[in-house]
Amino acid sequence: MGAYILRRLLLVIPTLLGIMIINFTLIQFVPGGPVETIIARLEGGGDVFESISGGGSELAETGSESEYVGARGLPQDFIEELEREFGFDKPPLERFLNMMWNYVRFDFGESYFRSISVVDLVLEKLPVSLTLGLWTTLLAYLVSIPLGIKKAVRDGSKFDTWTSGVIIVGYAIPGFLFALLLIVLFAGGSYWRIFPLRGLTSDGFEDLSAIGKVLDYLWHITLPITAMMISGFATLTLLTKNSFLDEVRKQYVMTAKAKGLTEKAVLYGHVFRNAMLIVVAGFPAAFIGVFFGGSLIIETLFSLDGLGRLGFEAAVARDYPVVFGTLFAFTLLGLIIGIISDLMYVFIDPRIDFEGRG
Fold first, then answer.
1. Do 93 and 139 belong to one domain?
2. What is the CATH classification number for the domain harbouring 291?
3. Is the Cα torsion angle 184, 189, 191, 194 positive or negative in sign?
4. Which Gene3D superfamilies did the record assign (predicted)?
């Protein structure tokens, strides 16, 4: 097993490097950049999209950077100073190598526009994403696993049929659309104002008692967590059911029943461990997927300032230290989580031998 882990760890290096090279290369061909963003702000454009659409066309039409700068009304030496400040006076290969050398030492630099280090910025936004990811994953597992087991035991019954209908509907509804429905119904949209619409805590949170803080926190996260877990809940329930059905039809289950064991003893004494292998072992990957998996719309709808909004705003503003720093860190974390998921398989079922497969 040690050799397998070592191979996987060594594979992390070229995988991570390839992802960074592809994204860095793509960025070189995307119109606009930090310098154009600052120019747009200085000239009153105020929006990076202007440099992509209107501003970018000026450069294309004139065919030279000097004429582009003249159209902007800014001196060439000022533009060159901006490029030196951001490091764009160096060739792309040198910039990429410098960036990767810093990242290997976990030096992610400072945001271009926020005057704060990338690490501090991520830590500032982390509580929101941690809340959404952790609670969404835990609740999805706590609801889906018992429901999936019950559906497997009562396969083909009325209970199985109508719950499958509910699950399919839940899977078909986009999370953001369900979030809008919750806002309209329960957050003062058009009907009841039961839950708050903004933030993770209320004003005066620090003055509340311990129990009051817990209740206030749960009160705020109810709607966003419900909106985020709907599709994952559907997928995990069906995965659990199908996994149990596959195990129930195997020979060892028939043998256990023939020995006189009760259905409950067979189900939880023999079937459960084997059926839950794929479900439980996938928990780390499921958590990391929800944690970093594009909760931008949910965060925006409920005014939550998390990593989803951070990534979007950094991409729009061409804040490259934030974009590439978070890409490097989260990709590395995702690759490590993949290895941990494999180890979870072996921990749950020692019969699995990844090294033997190699």
1. no
2. 1.10.3720.10
3. positive
4. MetI-like
C-alpha 7/C-alpha 25 separation (Å) is: 28
Q: Which two tokens stand for residue 304?
A: 């939550």
Residues in Cβ contact with 303 at an 8 Å cutoff, skipping those fewer than 6 apart: 197, 198, 199
Structural domain includes residue 224: yes
Give me the number of domains the chain comprises. 2
Give the sign of the dihedral formed by CA 121, CA 22, CA 40, CA 300. negative
- Is 332 in the same domain as 212? yes
Quick one: how far is CA 122 from the chain centroid?
A: 13
pLDDT under 50: residue ranges of the chain: 47-71
Please count the residues of the chain.
358
Does the residue 11 lie in any domain?
no
* Cβ count near 198 (within 10 Å): 11
DSSP-derived 3-state class of residue 117? strand
Query: Which one-letter amino acid corresponds to residue 165?
Result: G
Crossing angle of helices 2-28 and 320-348, rounded to 10°: 160
pTM above 0.85, yes or no: no
Residue 314: domain span: 121-357
Using the structure block, give the residue that is written with the tokens 């195990």: 247
